[in-house]
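Today's session is about reading a structure prediction critically. Students often jump straight to the picture, but the first step is always the sequence itself: look for stretches that repeat, for charged clusters, for runs of hydrophobic residues. Only then move on to the predicted structure, which in these notes is written as discrete structure tokens rather than atom positions. Here is the chain we will use throughout the hour.
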Amino acid sequence: MSNSHPELLRRHKHNPILTAANWPYPVNSVFNPGAVLLADGTTLLLCRVEDRRGQSHLCAARSANGVDDWRIDPQPTLMPDPEHHPEEIWGIEDPRITHVPELNQYVIVYTAFTRDGPGVALATTEDFHTFKRYGVIMPPEDKDATLLPRRIDGRWALIHRPVSSPRAHIWLSYSPDLTHWGGHKLMMEARRGGWWDANKIGLSSPPIETPKGWLVIYHGVRHTAAGAIYRLGLALFDLKNPELCLKRGSQWFFGPQEAYELHGDVGNVVFPCGHTLLPDGDTLHLYYGAADTSIALATGSVVAMLDWLEKDK
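Below is the predicted structure for this chain, in token form.
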């Protein structure tokens, strides 16, 4: 690749767009939101909110333009329910939202903080006011999960990131009913050595369906003497067979550089869990957690990302 590095994501000038100071009740931090564009054009963020005990719940924020004038639910939107779901004993985190036309519902896949570490849980909703919980569908340690919006060969497909060793890779699993999961396949492996995404990778926001394939924004973690750095890369997977990786970028394209990304509860972190695609089908609003402390927005173009990925060597 040439020395020219196009800016695929542009930070919004008013970043961070949401902080704990915006919340209608006392909290420690707000970050890692799932995102969806509702039928009426409203942007809804389902934010991870960490309370002052250190435990997280989910709270919805709505905006007409997806940038400002956020209307935040006055009380938590989805709280942990350890009485009925003991796996949520230490909170719920990092939601990723998929609208599923077949179900006419939104499927929220989130992390349940169990006694034995993070597990993958699933819930559905029509309106983000009432929810049906399915409970944990992937046991600890597993996270960074989302559902594809349509079936693959008659089965639902879940992307997730189990950990069974010092290395952690992205996997794909299948289900006939969103409850019973199997057919587990390795989707993309963390690289070894000195790469920016060596040893540990995970899905960022849900995959974007394009004519060329599923465009996946993923995070890679590099461990340095000063700690971990979370940055973003791109990969493309076959539409009919998402286990098949068609192209994977060699370089990261977005990483922490602003003060609100470098310094916070966990510094050197940009961590998207959600995006919206504007009506033009190309403009991307990527919502990300900055340093596990606040929510920021970056905008980009799906076409430009695909072009960058095609040219990357």
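Discussion point for the tutorial: The two ends are 5 Å apart (CA to CA).
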